[in-house]
Structures are given as C-alpha cells and as structure tokens.
Amino acid sequence: MAQLTFDSTKPFDFIGVGRLCIDLNANEIHRPMEETLTFTKYVGGSPANISIGMARLGMKTGFIGRVADDQMGRFIEQYLDKNGIDTSSVITDTNHSVTGLAFTEIKSPSDCSILMYRDNVADLYLEPQDIKEEYIKNSKALLISGTALSKSPSREAVFTTLHYARKHGTVVFFDIDYRPYSWTSEDETAIYYKLAAEKSDVIIGTREEFNLMERIDKRDEPNDWSTAKDWFKHEAKIVVIKHGDKGSISYTKNGQSFDSPVFPANVIKTFGAGDSYAAGFIYGLMKGWKLPEAMEFGSAAAAIVISSHSCSDAMPTADQIKEFIHDCNNGSQSIQKEGVQ
Amino acid sequence: MAQLTFDSTKPFDFIGVGRLCIDLNANEIHRPMEETLTFTKYVGGSPANISIGMARLGMKTGFIGRVADDQMGRFIEQYLDKNGIDTSSVITDTNHSVTGLAFTEIKSPSDCSILMYRDNVADLYLEPQDIKEEYIKNSKALLISGTALSKSPSREAVFTTLHYARKHGTVVFFDIDYRPYSWTSEDETAIYYKLAAEKSDVIIGTREEFNLMERIDKRDEPNDWSTAKDWFKHEAKIVVIKHGDKGSISYTKNGQSFDSPVFPANVIKTFGAGDSYAAGFIYGLMKGWKLPEAMEFGSAAAAIVISSHSCSDAMPTADQIKEFIHDCNNGSQSIQKEGVQ
Amino acid sequence: MAQLTFDSTKPFDFIGVGRLCIDLNANEIHRPMEETLTFTKYVGGSPANISIGMARLGMKTGFIGRVADDQMGRFIEQYLDKNGIDTSSVITDTNHSVTGLAFTEIKSPSDCSILMYRDNVADLYLEPQDIKEEYIKNSKALLISGTALSKSPSREAVFTTLHYARKHGTVVFFDIDYRPYSWTSEDETAIYYKLAAEKSDVIIGTREEFNLMERIDKRDEPNDWSTAKDWFKHEAKIVVIKHGDKGSISYTKNGQSFDSPVFPANVIKTFGAGDSYAAGFIYGLMKGWKLPEAMEFGSAAAAIVISSHSCSDAMPTADQIKEFIHDCNNGSQSIQKEGVQ
Amino acid sequence: MAQLTFDSTKPFDFIGVGRLCIDLNANEIHRPMEETLTFTKYVGGSPANISIGMARLGMKTGFIGRVADDQMGRFIEQYLDKNGIDTSSVITDTNHSVTGLAFTEIKSPSDCSILMYRDNVADLYLEPQDIKEEYIKNSKALLISGTALSKSPSREAVFTTLHYARKHGTVVFFDIDYRPYSWTSEDETAIYYKLAAEKSDVIIGTREEFNLMERIDKRDEPNDWSTAKDWFKHEAKIVVIKHGDKGSISYTKNGQSFDSPVFPANVIKTFGAGDSYAAGFIYGLMKGWKLPEAMEFGSAAAAIVISSHSCSDAMPTADQIKEFIHDCNNGSQSIQKEGVQ
Fold first, then answer.
1. Does the complex come out with an ipTM higher than 0.90?
2. Strand ranges across the sheet with D171-175
C-alpha cells in the first residue's frame, strides 16, 4: 500500500483548508425545528471537523481559513487552539462577513436536515495571498473541501494551495463535500471540482458527487471503476466512492478495491459520519496501515460520532477507537469485504 | 390632544409593516458570547415586537411582511397566529432568502450587544405588489420601521404603504430604528428617512437619528424644537425624541412638550425597551388619552420588558401595565416633567 | 400667468441635472444600422440637450453631473464649456465608469430607434455630496430628468437637489424621460417618479409616463385633468402632457389648458424633439411670456431640430426661432388651440 | 518540427473561441480622440480577428461565441458569414447584454490607445452548455483567448472547451491576451491563466503576461527558458514569448528557440499586429512548415495589417503574404535569428 508517500521530515502532519463555521444543534430533538426552543453551539464545517478529529488522534495539525471578526469567529479560533491546532493561518476577516451557521433539525435518527446560513460568510473570503507557500511545504498532507471552491476568492485560494502542494510533495486529500446552495450551476460546480480533483492524491465523495463531475462527458451509466480510472490518469492514487447505506468502496491505482466495514451504532443523528470517517481513514493511511485497516478505523470513528449529540466535540481519540473496535470484535461483528478488479 | 384622528369605522386597529426575525438570546448571561453555549429562540424585529405588544394590549392587529420559506419563517408565522395577529399579509418569500437573526450578548445589564445576520433576509424582499390598498385602508393606524427602508424592493413597498395610508387617512407611526449595517451610506439613509418622515403623523427616534436626517442641512447645533418644527411643516403632529438616559420628550404641533416618566426596573437587559414603550404609547394615543398618560403607559411597559429575558414574549397586557403603574405609584415614585414652548 | 416665480436676484438662470452622454449618429441613414458603416459623435442626454438649448437661447446656464474619466468625458466637458455652460459642478467620476452611448438608427423619418449603452455609466454615480446647496440656491430654475432617478447614488443626488431647490425657492422642472432599461421594475419607477413629481413645479411627460406614475392607484381610465389635479395638490403649477402625434397640452393650477401649436418640418429624425421643445418652452416661461407663447416657441425650436442631423448641436438661438416662426406665419400656418376646463 | 499533430481526418481546420466585438476606429487620426468626430465600424476582438485571418488564408474555420441580440450582434454574425466562417455555434445572447466596443485613438503610429466598453458584454455570457463536444472533436485545432477566462460563465465554457479538446486530440492554441479591466485581481488572473495554459499545446504571450502567471511562485528574475520549461512539463510543445520591440521568440519542447523576423512596414497603428501574426503563424504550423517559416509568415501578415486602417478587414490572403515576403526579400531585408539552448 505504498501508493501515498508522506515526507517524514516535514514538521506538520496535516492541514485543513476552508470552512470554519458554527453548528447550532437542536436540544429538543425528534420534532420539527419549529418546535425546538433552544440550541447548543459547536464548531462545525467539514474540514474543521476533520482537523479536530486529526488533532484528537494525536496528529500535528494546522488550519488555513478565515473567521468573522465577531464573537462566533473568536469562539472558533479559541476552540481550535484548545484542541492543539495551529491557528497561525486562521485569519480574522475584515470584509464585514459573518460566520456560517448550520441549524440542525433531528426529526428522527434517519430524518435529519440542516438549515444553512451561507450568505456573506467569512470562510469564502479566503484569498490567494492568505496561502503561505512555506506553510504548505511544511505539512505532510492537507485536506481541501469542495465547498471552498464555490465562490471567489476562496476558489482561487484553493487552487493556490493545490499548486504549492504539488510543487512540494504535500499529499492532497480532496473531500468533495457538495453543498448546492453556494454554487451558481451544476456546470460550474463540475468544472471546478474536476480541476481540483485532477491535482489530488486521494478523492473522497459520494456516487452522486462523482456523477456530478462526469456530467460534462454525459457518460451513460455510472461505473465506479471507470470513474476511478479517470482520476488515476491524473494524480490520484486512491478514490473512495460512498454508496450511502451500502457503504463506501476504496479503489486504488494498482487495481484493488476494498469495501468499508460497518460497525453497529446507537444512532442519534447522521451528521458528522463522513467527517469522522475521513479523520480515522486519513490517520490510518498516514500511519502506513493497509487500506482495509484504515477504512476500519474510519468506520469505527464514524460509529462513535453518530452516537453522540455533536460532530466536532465528539471526535474520538485513537485509544477510544481502538477500544471500540476491540469491543465490537468481541461482541457484534463488523463486516469486511474485499475485491480485486 | 385631538391631534391624531383614528377612524373608528375601520375594522383593524393597527398594522405593523416590515421586519420579522428571530432573536437568539444567550441563556448563560453576564459573560462574553464566546462563552455562551446555548441560546433560546424568540420572534424578534422591532415592528414585530410592537405588533405583538399591541395584540397583547387587546388591539385588533395585522402584519405586512415576508418570512423565509423555512422552519424559522414558519415558527414566526405560527407565533403571530397564536398571538391573534392577522397574518393574511404575511407572505412566504421564494427568493431563497433566510430569516434575519439577532444573537444577543448580555455582559451586564448596561453592556448588551447584538450580533446580527442581515444578509439576504426575507423581510427586505417585501414588494410593492405585496401591499394591498384595501388592507391599509381598513386599519386605523400602522407602523413603519426605518430598517424596511434600507434596501429595495422593501423600500418601495414602504413608500407604497405610505401612499395608501395618506390616501385613506390611516395614521402613520414612523419608528426610525436606524441600523447602520443594512445601509450603503449615511447620505442614502438621510434621504429616504426624510421622504418617509414627511408622510408620517408621529415620528419616534433618538436625538442621533434625527441628527442623521438633518445632515443634509448641516445644521450647526441639534435643537429639539427646530427638529420638531421641520416635521410639523409636513404631516407630523407629534415628534418623540429620545435622549438616552435622560428620557424621551414628546413635542406636539400645537407647541407643547412632555417628558417621559421613568419607572424603576430590575434590569436584565436593555433590548426591547423602545419597542415596548412604543406599544404602550401608541395604545394610549389610540385610546384617546392625553399625551402624558400615553407616555406613562409606554414607560411602564418598557420597565416590565427590560426586567425579563425576552422582548416579544414578555410584552405585557393592559392589566399588567396598569397594575405595575399602581404598584409603583404606591411605592417608588415615577417622575413626570412637563414643558411648554 | 404668474404661477411661476423666478427670483431675479439669483445669478444663474438655469441648471441642468443628470445625464451627460454621447450620441453616435449614423451617417448612412434610411437603412438598418447593420448597414451603417460610420457614425458621428455628439454630446447627448436629455438634460444636456436642454441645457445646451438654454445656453444657445442666451440664458446663464450651469450643469450638475458626472462624466467618465476618459476621452468621451473630456469631450463632453469641453463642449459644454464652448457653449458657455458653467461646468464647475461637472465632476470627473473615478469609479471606472464609462460614458453612456446612444447609437441612432434612422430607417426612415418615422422609424427611428436607439441602441443604448447604459451599464456602469458615469452619470448614475452622481452623489448627494456632489450637490452644493449654494449652487442650487443661486439659480432661478433647474431641470431634473427621470433617468437620473433610476439608480443609486444618482437617485439620492436628485432628492438632495429637490430638497435644496424647495428650501431656496428654485423653480423645479421635471422632465419624466422614462427609459425602461435602467430600471428594475415599473413599480420601482412609479414610486420614485411620484416622490420627485410631488416636489416639482412643472412636470412634463407623455400620457404613458403619467399612466406609469398612476399604476399604484390602478385608476380605470387615464384622464388628463385628473392627472394634473393630482399634482396640483402638491407643488405643481403646470403639467404638460404629451399625446404623441396629437400634440402636447399644458394644464395649469388655475384651471386652464392650452394645446401646442404644430409647425411644419422637413423631418430627418424625431430624436431631440422633446428636448428642444423643453428648452424653448422653459425659456418662454422664464421670460414671463403667456403659456401659449412659450409653447409656440418650444414647438418652433422642435421643428428646427428634427429637420437637422444632430440634437445638441442643432439647438437654435432665440433669433433663429423667431425668424422661423415669422417665416411660418407668413407661409404655412401653425395651429393654436386653447381650452378652459 | 513534428511536435504538433493535426488530425487530417477532421473536417474543420480551426475554431476560434470567445470574444466577438466591434472596433470603432477614429477616422480623423493623429490627434486625441476628443477631437475625433467620426468613427468607422469593424468586427473586432482578438479571437475574431485571428479566425477571420485563418478564413482569409483558406482554412475551414468556425467560431464559438455569443453576440448581443441587437444590430451590432447581427452585423458581426453577418460579417463572419460573408468571410466563410461557420457560425452554427455563434449564439445570440438573451441576457440583455451588449456588444463589446473598442474605440481606437491613434495619436501617432507609436502612440495608440483603446477606450473599451466591456460591461455586460455578450461574449462573457458564453456557457458550458454552448460548447458542443462534437464540434470541438471535429476540428484539427482551436484557439482560446485569455479574456474569455475573465468572468463566469465564459470562464467555465473555456474549461469545458479545453476538456473536450484534450479528450479528442484537438490542438489548443492559447493566446493569453491579458486585458486588466475585466479581472478582479492579478491573483485571480494568474490562477486561471495557469489552469488553462496547463492544458494548451501552444502558448503565446508577452513577457509581462508570462510574469503574471508566475507571480504565485515569486520567481526572482524572469527567464524565458525557465518559463517555457514550466509549461513543457504539462501539455505545451511550443511557447512563444513576445518581447515588444525586440521581437518574439519561440521555444520548443525539444530545446530549440527561434527569433521572429521583422518586416518593414508603413505603420498606421500597432493594433492587430498580434492577431495577424497569430493567424499567419498558426497557418504555417498547420501546413507542416518549419517553425522559422511559420514565424516569418506571421511577421509578414502583421506588417501588412499594421499598414492599414482596420484589423479584421485588413487580414491578408496567403497569396498577399507570399507576395509581400517576396517583395521584401528582393528589396529591404528581413532578419532571422535562430538559437539553440
């Protein structure tokens, strides 16, 4: 599994890039939000959650992003600091922006929705000038999230990041994380996702997200291997395609594929499943584990997070995940499937 | 005090026009918002608060405004319904707008601030076509709030309202309610405030707000009587100028002025003082009371609201206000000053 | 005809406010513009044309407006200077704006059209701060054009002008001059036209333009006297309603009405008819002539301009108009109708 | 010189993509534009000029672009038709856009400038959906111009074009053609130029334009060979760097470089030099000529165009260019320098 090479001489393990926002989670759940009276505040945003996850797992982590010049922005920066994340590249925006908000509505474990505030948000004011070549150069890996591509100047900041990452051998994880409300059209989305994916080492997305990128080619029927091979022609070594309830499959440039194991969970809400999976999975890959082991670690992390009220605040440590896997293996059974093309 | 004439044949007493939004009040108070973890949700927005106040006082009340097509918008409409406010002119906006938010921070009773979300808000999408001539014609009085003038098409909807109100003898209360973040410049603000104030019967604002309207004339020193007389040349009969801690003064077209009484209060926060004052004051005027009585009623309502956690939800009934005044008069003393020019 | 009072102690006779642009008139005419190969450049824009007309008639004239910081802007300012118009309030805009353009297409004398360039034009960047109270105070009369109301900040600059004009007794001529391409909606247009017309002494427009202002009242059938009386309730003393081929009618506050005479013309194009009419008509009113005389002077000026290739450059002197009227009266006959309500 | 491979089975030789606009050339030249009274209308825009040049040279040429729904737009489409260019992918825009304009000012042969109208122009409304995969597939070569990258959705339409071109082996010529007024920032420009250049076979630009693309890497001193090699790592086979008066140099992936010859010209204006050069140069490459021959052909075409009043209308035929070269070689001498790294 030597497809990804992490340069051990680099001081940082991991840098998250992009969205830093606030989750306001309904305290009174299992009802429509109209009937919710109080909300609890957490740090949110997919790359923020993953970075917090990586820090909890003991990785030396930094973040590149912009926060609003207000109480919400200061809360986010303080929370990252408390979690040991380097915030030297977290910039206080001065464009009179606000902090993105996500009010969560949990009608039932399987019926969850989010009410988003994404107008004039600080994270999309990230600029190319905010990206320091030295900072990128000094990290073994980084993660970009697709929402950061949805508007200028954040979009150009991401391409600047990708340029430096490729120049200096920093491994790029691309979490597609498609959120339609920030984009002008699906055509626009497809174009910039493709340009970013071409420069990424690991691409993670749902089957629908990969379909979106393929709309320009009007491919008749979605096919995971065809999709994966498109990206292996560029820089990708691993492509992870999520099939909802049916689980995720990882495809590798050398022709292997692996199914994700599934762990039992006492599901409170499904939010945060993807972010905790990503943290566990990337951690495993960076530890040099085989792909199935990394996937198992990600799945276990996800099972832990969806059983609790928050996303960021519930990110587990490595010991917690190991203990969880151990308990499951001695009790209920996880399922592991493996395939070769 | 026969300066205002309310047409008793009209079925509605009062219509609020403009902003409907959500207050998210910090539950853990007396600290910076960074340290607040949970928030409670209330209906907010100055004209919403005043209208709720009027309904609590037993007036037949309606509202003209737009709410977002989401859980917050539905919560607002349901809350108005529950308070007996006619919502036939409350329109669900379909411009992908959001509901305005106000997170309150209460560091101490005298150190309160608000973190506003006002980008792409539903209330500023109110359109001239939303204003039904018959609805305006059928109300004795209406209230417009200055924030509704800050952007098109809401601005034009307000001028449409004013046109119908003057045409049909509906008494216009204009609450200046200046919020700088929605405006492009102070010049722009001054121009539209002046155009609206020229068509209003009662104008209520702080000394600073009246100064803002006078910036175009570069008047040397603010003077309440000069200010009031400017507006008496147009449609105004009463001008209320608020001087912060020093209290409010009402000026009348026939040359009288009256100071507001001050009631003792166990202040939790200062938010909502102006809105509850306005509700009590307008109620008194509509009952045909003398100006000092109406002002006393407004002051008492304000004292009640600033002693509780919310604004809208704490609006008192007439009985509560009367009881409060009675209790105060038999205990601590309110002060009433009267002046004649 | 003592309805308008011009203060003879004021040094300036007339100030134009608003649009300064460039006409590019087809040299090869009587064909579609696709087949026109060369164009000749003139100063254009309704208030510019009228001001040039007033200056040619010997009136001491000034202009308030913004021009682009480019060759077209400099050409305009130089042309005004050459015509003796005071340009101390013509400001060079620094918003990277351009000069408005109007390419004229003359398929036949009765089939003319204009291709407009009105995006990001300098004239609509006129700001309230550009309006000097002293300059307005020092003029006997001024003219505002409806297009200047179509966008901020020019819209607010016009209302600032109107405020100073009313304050200092400067007579306001309002040329409605409706051009749909600059406006967001007809509702928006109607609102601001009404607010400006309420503060004007003389209102000039087509029947369709007055209908537009009345849309908010959904009046069943347009009626000139009803229209005129609406405005006489505010500041208007004269209302001129143009009925296309059927000519214009002037209505006065004291209940009189007068038809415009029609002069024979060797029509090249219809552009500029309204502007030259306005110049002649306003000149007559300012000379203290009776209304029919002023209207005849306007009609004669129009007949001269539509018989030549340009608008601004063809504006006649008083002697030219008088000679033209004299020639017509001794030859072909003008028609004068008069009515009293 | 077998670096570029043109697939002879494809029916089209060449497709231009992007800007179609109007040049308005001063008829009275050698003076400031303020003193110019008449202008002559021509089709303009760099890719339009090059495509017209290619058609004149006998190549089967098409164009992909949007024109305004007005007389200027129809004039452009008719002119392309007359020149034998396929306009099946020239779309009439319905966004109320206008046609871009370029007023030329020719103070002297060496002191020329352009006054641009680029707000709300039709060509920048080109959409990804306008790009037909089959049309790109059917052409041996295509040219994209950097201005088409300056705004959405035209920017995304260009990347769609590049995707299809690479997929189907259509040779991509990228004319950087940097025009600052359409861009938000130099950072933004650099990012998208780089992404497009990475997918191009031949990149043509000035030394300053290549510097702009390198700003992200803060390279100390511009160096042509370093620049060229950056692009040879991607898809480029030829990089042409223009050094103003000192002429252009072509660099090839196999390590050669060639200076452009210079032809004598009776210069009227410098506009159109680059476009005519590009047409002649691309024509030569597509004919399979050696690089120096293609460059000579381009230089001769440029010498012809700068000696005449227009750009598009002056594009020469192959016979005219050959005759010009022949005449020059028998009279004044062109200079050819060749270098090898």
1. yes
2. D86-92, D61-67, D12-17, D139-145, D171-175, D202-206, D238-242, D248-252, D256-259, D338-340
